[in-house]
Structure formats: structure tokens, C-alpha cells
């Protein structure tokens, strides 16, 4: 994929490095001259300019990008970048960083945001996930589809131990997408057995989350 990242601070650079390691093409757009350091991520294309300006986005060729990530430290800028990328340049996928949780309600498809990533919410979810074995934890919200990425870790005494995935009665608007088992990432097949300590990741709408708990015996 070709990915444009607005904001070349620590967050933007880290994202760029990870994507480049995954063999994606990356472009970093940075408006502050003191943050414009192409040597920091040499494999990326760098653009000096304000990503909130249509002319800069046009000159950078952002319409050729598959994904735009608004990763600045300013929520207002991230909303403007998201809106322009989606409405003016028809970028297929827009991901936006939410710096202040109080602004999270704004990061919807009305502002061109497909996926909003709130660092405080993610950190809180990770802490909750670490101490809440047997409880359903919401990790991320996909704004455009009104679905969530949720996780549940099976406790040691789970009645599902040894039972195949096909035995789970998963509600219609939910899908089991991954099982994390130790250092393994398992794409679940109907015959795969479940084990205590498995981390089950579902994509589901909020209204069926109670049904997922019921299906897993909670």
C-alpha cells in the first residue's frame, strides 16, 4: 500500500518505520521545519508543508494513497486532514489519532474518519485486558461500520477447554477473527480446539457483545 502520514513527530515516525518494515510505501507530511528530518526515516518520501491545506495535499499526490493517517498532536488538525483526504481526494481509508479523549465523539465518518485511534483509550484497554481475564474488553472502534474490536481471555477453568471453535454459538453480527495463544497468532478454523489462556479477538457490533459473553459462558 501507499500510505500518507500527516505529522512527522515521534508518533508519525514510529508508524512510518513500522509500515516500511512491512514493505509499504510511506510519505510523511510535516509543516514544522524543525521536525522535518528526512534522515530520521530515510526510506519514506518527505513533504514540507501543512497537510490542512488542499494545495499541499494536491502537490503531494495524496489521491494516489490507499491510506491516510492523521497523526499530529492536534485534534483539530487531524480532523481537517481526515475530512480533506476523504471528501476532496477520495482516499479509501482514513485513520485518525485522537489526542484528547473528550474529542473522541467528533472522530466519525462525518469528518471522514474510518478508524479513530485514541491512545488513552488503547492504554486503558490494555491495562484492563491485562487484569480482566474472563471479561470482554473493547480495544478499538471502527467508526464507519459501527463495529468494535473486542477481546476476551479464557480463564484457567473455562468450560470451553478442548472444545472446537465450531462449538461456539457466535451471534450474527460478530466474527471471531484471531486467537492469540502465547506467541502464536491463529486464524481460527472450525476444528481448532480452544485452550485456557487463549485471547479471542472478535469484530462485533456493540449490541451483540452480551451475546458473545453468553456464548463463552459468562
From TrEMBL:
* Pfam entry (one): TrkA_N
Q: Protein name, please?
A: Trk system potassium uptake protein TrkA
Which positions carry the signal peptide feature in this UniProt record? none
- Domain of life of the native organism: Bacteria
Q: Which PROSITE patterns match?
A: RCK_C (PS51202), RCK_N (PS51201)
> In the UniProt record, which is one GO cellular component term?
plasma membrane
Question: Which molecular function GO terms apply here?
Answer: potassium ion transmembrane transporter activity
Q: Where is the RCK C-terminal domain?
A: 137-218
Which of UniProt's keywords are assigned here? Ion transport, NAD, Potassium, Potassium transport, Transport
State the Gene3D superfamilies in the record. NAD(P)-binding Rossmann-like Domain, Regulator of K+ conductance, C-terminal domain
UniProt entry tagged with the keyword Signal: no
